[in-house]
Amino acid sequence: MPKRDKQAVGQRLLGRFRAAGAVLVAPDILLPADTLLDLYGEDIRARAYVTQDPIRGEMMLRPDFTVPVVQAHMDNGAEPARYCYLGEVFRKQDMGDTRPRTLRDHEYLQCGFELFSRDPDADAEVFALFHDALAPLGLRAETGDMSLLLDAVAGLPLTEARSAALLHHIWRPGRFARLLARFSAPAVARDLPDATAPWAGLRGEDEMIRRIARLQSDAAVAPLSAIWTDRLDRLFSLRAPAALALPALAELAADMPAIAPAVARIRARMDAIAARGIDLGAVIFDASHGRTTLEYYDGFTFSFQAGALHESRAGWPPVASGGRYDALTRVLGRGREIPAVGGIIRPGLVAELEASA
């Protein structure tokens, strides 16, 4: 796809976002790596380009726009606030990715919109803005809510350590499933070394003693009852048109009281989306939506997919995606916070769809 076509689409989308009141911002392409590493840990290294600057230290090519926009807003911004942007982001390819090269570029264009607001209808406003911008393409809209899953896991009858471990890995479905299976089975006693034996390795003696104590304590914990794993499986696998998902969520909330507040928020959000003229029957609610994205989404998530309606694009990433990231503003605000929600569109994919229409 010629760069000028992508840029033309990006400028058109940018104009729509600016018409919605957003201020245009342009974060640096090279960002301090420490903030991103603090937020995501070493996992981000597998997806981003990191380099050493002799003066500025470890730096990272911009893997997305949200973090630098939030940083700038929490340092200087008033509220409410709206921002938009257009520019390249940089991600490493997965060596096992067999999609066409155009879908796994190291660098691609993003156009985005971020809303910092305490308005309870902010989620619906952002979703409707993206829905209207992409309506001519006939994409499939999908939504979810990470707070629903986070509350469900936090409400399980588990020890604090086990609950924290599951919450930490909720964005990594494979690791999460293995942990849940382990916590649902009787603990296997471990043959731990005598504390008087010689110590070896990189861990210090005090750290190893504490770790042994945690393992011994965990071995005595009763397994999670099958009734809870069944309820969790039912929740995580829930996928249906939004209007049909609500009764299923209400039924699950009766068995899992911890998710009742999240279910109420989802119902209110769906009502607000419907009030903006969007057919809920054409919007998919997927309870696990957002589990494989960047880890700062902690509430509403959404995406617009081409694969369902265009068979030749089955391997495409989302044409657009986004969500709510309130916790990120608390972390980067160093005590201050403001609810925030936003998303991005890939102009290159929009341009390809328009060219083939």
Number of strands: 12
CATH architecture of the largest domain: 2-Layer Sandwich
Largest sheet: 9 strands, mixed
Low-confidence stretches: 95-99
Q: CATH first level of the largest domain: which class?
A: Alpha Beta
Identify the overall geometry.
Answer: globular
Strand content: 15-25%
Helix content: 40-55%
**Average pLDDT over all residues:** 85
What's the number of domains? 3
CATH superfamily of the largest domain: Bira Bifunctional Protein, Domain 2
- Listing every helix as H and every strand as E from the N terminus to the C terminus, the arrangement reads HEEHEEHEEHEHHHHHEHHEEEHEH
The radius of gyration computed from the alpha-carbon positions, rounded to a whole number of angstroms, is 22 Å
- Order of neighbouring strands in the sheet with most strands: 1-5-6-12-11-10-7-9-8
- How many alpha or pi helices? 13
Cα end-to-end separation? 15 Å
Keywords: Glycosyltransferase, Transferase
GO molecular function: glycosyltransferase activity
Pfam families: tRNA-synt_His
Protein name: ATP phosphoribosyltransferase regulatory subunit
Could you characterize what this model shows?
The chain is of the alpha+beta class. The protein folds into three domains: 3-27 and 62-139 and 306-356, BirA Bifunctional Protein, domain 2 (2-Layer Sandwich), CATH 3.30.930; 147-185 and 225-299, no CATH class; 187-222. It is 42% helix and 18% strand. The chain has 13 helices and twelve strands. The protein has helices at 3-19, 33-40, 66-76, 122-134, 146-154, 160-168, 173-183, 205-219, 226-236, 242-255, 260-275, 326-332, 347-356, and strands at 23-24, 30-32, 50-53, 57-61, 81-90, 107-116, 140-145, 239-241, 283-286, 300-305, 320-324, 340-345. The strands form two sheets. A nine-stranded mixed beta sheet has the order 1-5-6-12-11-10-7-9-8, with helices on both faces. Strands 2-4-3 form a three-stranded antiparallel beta sheet. Strand 3 and strand 4 (57-61) form a beta hairpin. Helix 6 runs antiparallel to helix 7. The radius of gyration is 22 Å and the shape is globular. Residues 95-99 have low confidence and may be disordered.
